[in-house]
Amino acid sequence: MNILISHITTSCALGSAFFLLIAFPIMGEEAAIKRATKTAAPNPAGIHLDQKCGKITLNAARGQYEEKNHFAYWNWDFETIRPGSYEVKVIYTSVRLKKMGLQFRLDDTTVLKSYVYRSRKPDAADEYAIGRVRIATKGKHHITLLTADKSKDPPFSIKGIKLVPVQESKEQLGQGLDGTLELHAGDAITHSEKMHYEHKAEKNCLGYWVQAEDWAEWDFHVSMPGKFNVSLIYGCGDKSGGSEVALLTSNDQVLKFKVKETGGFQNWETLALGTVELSEEGSHRLAIQPLSKPGAAVMDVRKVILTPVK
User: Fold this and answer.
1) Dihedral of the CA atoms 191, 60, 3, 108 (nearest 10)?
2) Enclosing domain of residue 224
C-alpha cells in the first residue's frame, strides 16, 4: 500500500517527530562500497511481509531547493503520527571523484555531519546511511539537508531522504548464559503504520496494533544453536480476541496461533507457541505478522522468549 501525502511517501505509515540522533561511524569510500547486507527478514511461502511498511521517503521533487554560492539547501516539511526508530538514508547520484560533504538538520539545528561517495553506477541513485533518528512524538517538523556543493543536477544531485525502521535499542541481541533468548518489545523493529513501542513502565510493550498490515521483527545472534520452545508474553483487551497471528523465523519456520482475551491489554499472560530449530550459529530474525484482525486491535506484546529444549 503506497501513500503519497504532501511531502512524504510511505508504504504503510507516517510517524511523528522529535528526533534523537546517534551518528554512525563515517566509513571510507571502499568500506562504503562494500557495505555488508544483513540477513533478510523471514518470509516463508504463503505469508507476505511488507518490507516497505513503515518506510518514509521525502522525495526531492516534493522538497524546496535553494542555492547559495557553492552550497545548497534542501527543505522538507512533514508530519508523522507514530513513534519509532529510523535509519536516515540520503538518496543521491554523484560522478565526482571526491566525496561530498553534507549536514542533516532538524528544525534549524545541525544534528549530523557526513559524506557521500561516488555512485557505483552513474545512471542509478545510491542510498547512504548517515545516522539514526528516534521519532518520539507526533507533530509537524522541518528537515534541512545542507550540501557542500550544488546538488540538484549532475554531476551531483540529491534525489531524496529515506527513513527506514530499525531496532529500537542499539544493542546486539544474543543468548544468555543458559542459552535463553529474550526478545523484548523495546528491541523490536516496527514495520507499521500505528503499532509502536510504548515506553511507560506499566506498558513496556508493542501497542496500538490496530492495523493487520503492521508487523514486528527482531534481529538477534545465536551462539548456542539448537531447538527452542517459543513463548509469548502478551495482553489482549475485551472484544479484541480472535486474531490469527504467525510467528516466523528467518529459516522459514512458522508457528501460527489465535489470540485470546486476557482481561486487558496490560493483563499479561504467557502463551506457549511451539518449538523452532535454529541450527546455525550467527544472525537470525524472527517476525510476528497478524493474518487476521476481527477485533479492535491484535494484542499488546511484551516479549518473545526462546528457551533451549533440554
Assistant:
1) 60
2) 181-308
